[in-house]
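hiii so um. not sure if this is the right channel but i have a protein structure encoded as tokens and i wanna go backwards to a sequence. like what aa goes where. can anyone help
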């Protein structure tokens, strides 16, 4: 599995810890054997050397290890009571001893098995079957990630034949272990939903790695769901998987053993820098690094060092930053799996005199037997710029040219042939023949361009319509400059053609759009002007105060948005034929001419309804019918009141509008909210009516929501602020209304209308 720098350091620490544990175990074992030798010296009356030979002979005759025989001798000498020191060792090692015996037996059988088929049979007989397993499969992995059944045991030949080859991409337990490069333990294969050879039960699937190369997979099969296994069993199967890897490696070596000299000869034939790497293993046989075994003649070091400082060195020693970058990981992966790696851009960073040097290169990594071939090509700045220029010409639809006027030689870029609609093998068109390929209306412009460049020796440009051979007309811009010798004689002309058709048609469309937009703006402005005039005619910002019948009435109206937005707020204060006073405010939803005309309709309709002598509730009921049936989907809120000067009683009703505010004795309160839906919302609606007895000095305010509403504040808080401000009224009624408008902090960009009524 690919390792990071931290994981490699952790692996080194783990290896040292394992070596210490093995040394401690070996020391414990030697102590136990020395005790047994002491027992034999005492019983046989012989020397230590003779006792050692005798211990080995007895162990061989009993088919046990010397360590097991030593334990038996010490136990017998202690009369079946193990001493504290021996007991501590045996208790710690008892579980591992039985596993170790089976492991050593299986190891011997595997090493003597020869081919992979016999190895599989030995693993099942000596290691897997004692663990309860009934089948073993050894898979060989190819470089394309396909799997081949190299050996099997406990599986019928017919089933093995069906599973002889598993193509790349098929999800099996072996494929999972191959991808993860870690042991996979499956409790129940059927529950996991992964098909595989052998019985459907528990599985232990372990990758076989030899010297850092992933050669295949060892799969051990149980007929029933598998219980969690102790660590000795895990270690035992890991060791057997490694041995199976040696068998697979031997089979692969027997099938094909690449000659390193042939690989070096292949590297020498390349024009790019090439390195032949050989694996460098640590004391445990694990891959630690790669040795640079060969450099081809074209090799150039990334940091400019001589070849002698790189050849023969370890990869991480020659390029220490490779361990922190991608290079070492990719080399390790290719060596482990056999999968080739190739990229057009890989960034290398190395330290040169404590200064980081970054190089970009294309790289190819392939495995050949036990060696890895790394080929890199440092990115050439000139080639990279040439590629960028080609892309720029393609994206900008630009093609360059150079015309030698003395020799008549013309050079075109490849993009220019496509722009002119010519085959790459066609002859370029000279500048002198440019008019023959242009629209006749553009010939004068081309003639002026040619005179500027050829006669006056100055840079010039022209735009014309190119008539291509395929019948397609394109809008082209040509720019060129003369190339002069020291004497001022014309040597050549270089320049470029650019297809500006898209720009031309965009400009045409933009011009047409501007014309339509200007017409639209003019129409909107005219409509807006008429709407504003209508609004100002009907709803002036301030009307003269009305003072009659013991009342003083003042009105203030402030449109929002100036001349750009016309709203539908309205107000009315008029003396009726019955000598009563009609008071109303309303708000049409929306803006513009529709809102203004709707306001006129409802305001005038309410005046006509008031002449009938009906109460405010009845008038709003009729006004709702007008809004719903006789207008173009108008929705509005309104407050309507009728004041009787003789009784000082105000009858009022509301249709979804804020209730009026009564200011009396330095205290402001809102009248109770009466029921009543928006005008025009329903075909039929009823509106509750109420009365309020006014007193001398009272002030009543009718207003639209543009006076108080804020987007970020609840409506109740906005109303509470209005009550606080209204309670502090001073001065005349007109002053109070002006103060309300000036102090309003509404931010809804809506019209504001206020009607004030003061009893005198």
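sure thing!! here u go:
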């Amino acid at each position: 599995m690919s390792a990071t720098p931290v994981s490699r350091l952790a692996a080194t620490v783990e290896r040292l810890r394992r070596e210490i544990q093995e040394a401690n175990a070996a020391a414990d074992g030697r102590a136990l054997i020395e005790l047994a030798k002491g027992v034999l010296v005492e019983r046989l009356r012989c020397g230590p050397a003779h006792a050692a030979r005798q211990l080995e002979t007895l162990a061989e005759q009993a088919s046990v290890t010397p360590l097991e025989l030593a334990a038996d001798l010490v136990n017998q000498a202690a009369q079946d009571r193990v001493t504290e020191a021996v007991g501590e060792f045996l208790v710690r090692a008892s579980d591992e001893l039985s596993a170790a015996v089976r492991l050593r037996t299986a190891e011997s059988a595997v090493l003597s098995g020869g081919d992979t088929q016999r190895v599989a049979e030995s693993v099942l007989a000596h290691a897997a079957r004692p663990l309860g397993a009934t089948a073993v499969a050894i898979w060989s992995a190819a470089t394309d990630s396909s799997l081949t059944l190299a050996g099997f045991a406990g599986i019928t030949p017919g089933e093995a034949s069906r599973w002889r080859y598993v193509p790349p991409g098929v999800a099996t337990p072996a494929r999972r272990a191959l991808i993860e490069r870690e042991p996979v333990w499956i409790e129940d294969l059927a529950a996991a939903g992964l098909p595989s050879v052998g019985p459907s039960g528990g599985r232990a699937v372990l990758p076989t790695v030899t010297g850092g190369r992933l050669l295949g997979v060892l799969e051990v099969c149980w007929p029933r769901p598998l219980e969690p296994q102790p660590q000795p069993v895990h270690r035992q199967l890991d060791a057997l998987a490694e041995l199976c890897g040696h068998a697979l490696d031997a089979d692969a070596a027997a099938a094909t053993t690449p000659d390193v000299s042939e690989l070096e000869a292949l590297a020498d034939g390349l024009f790019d820098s090439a390195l032949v790497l050989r694996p460098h293993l640590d004391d445990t046989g694990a891959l630690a690094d790669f040795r640079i075994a060969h450099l081809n003649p074209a090799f150039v070091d990334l940091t400019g060092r001589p070849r002698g400082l790189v050849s023969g060195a370890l990869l991480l020693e020659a390029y220490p930053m490779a361990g922190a970058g991608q290079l070492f990981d990719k080399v390790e992966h290719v060596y482990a799996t056999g999968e080739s790696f190739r990229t057009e851009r890989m960034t290398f960073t190395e330290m040169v005199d404590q200064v980081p040097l970054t190089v970009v290169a294309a790289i190819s990594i392939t495995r050949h037997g036990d060696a890895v071939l790394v080929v890199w090509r440092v990115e050439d700045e000139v080639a990279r710029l040439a590629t960028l220029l080609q892309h720029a010409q393609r994206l900008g639809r630009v093609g360059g040219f150079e015309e030698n006027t003395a020799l008549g030689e013309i050079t075109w870029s490849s993009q220019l042939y496509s722009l002119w609609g010519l085959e790459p093998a066609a002859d370029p068109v000279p500048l002198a023949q440019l008019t023959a390929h242009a629209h006749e209306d553009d010939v004068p412009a081309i003639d002026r361009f040619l005179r500027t460049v050829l006669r006056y020796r100055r840079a010039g440009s022209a735009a014309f319509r190119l008539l291509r051979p395929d019948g397609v007309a394109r809008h082209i811009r040509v720019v060129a400059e003369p190339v002069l010798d020291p004497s001022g004689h014309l040597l050549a002309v270089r320049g470029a053609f650019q297809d500006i058709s898209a720009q031309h048609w965009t400009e045409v469309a933009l011009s047409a759009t501007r014309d339509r937009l200007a017409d639209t703006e003019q129409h909107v402005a005219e409509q807006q002007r008429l709407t504003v005039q209508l609004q100002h005619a009907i709803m002036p910002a301030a009307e003269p105060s009305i003072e009659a019948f013991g009342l003083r009435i003042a009105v203030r109206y402030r449109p929002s948005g100036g001349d750009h937005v016309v709203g539908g707020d309205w107000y009315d204060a008029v003396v009726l034929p019955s000598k009563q006073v009609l008071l109303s405010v309303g708000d049409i939803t929306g803006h513009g001419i529709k809102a203004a005309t709707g306001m006129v309709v409802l305001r005038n309709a309410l005046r006509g309804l008031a002449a009938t002598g009906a109460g405010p509730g009845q008038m709003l009921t009729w006004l709702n019918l007008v809004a719903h049936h006789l207008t173009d989907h108008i929705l509005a809120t309104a407050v309507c009141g009728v004041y009787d000067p003789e009784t000082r009683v105000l009858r009022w009703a509301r249709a979804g509008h804020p209730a009026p505010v009564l200011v009396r004795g330095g205290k402001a309160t809102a009248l109770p909210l009466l029921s009543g839906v928006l005008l025009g919302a329903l075909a039929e609606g009823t509106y509750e009516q109420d009365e309020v007895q006014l007193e001398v000095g009272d002030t009543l305010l009718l207003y639209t929501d543009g006076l108080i509403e804020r987007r970020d504040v609840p409506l109740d808080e906005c109303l509470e602020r209005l009550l606080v401000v209204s309670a502090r009224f001073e001065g005349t009624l007109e002053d109070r209304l002006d103060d309300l408008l000036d102090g309003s902090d509404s931010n809804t960009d809506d019209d504001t209308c206020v009607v004030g009524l003061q009893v005198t």
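oh and The two ends are 97 Å apart (CA to CA).
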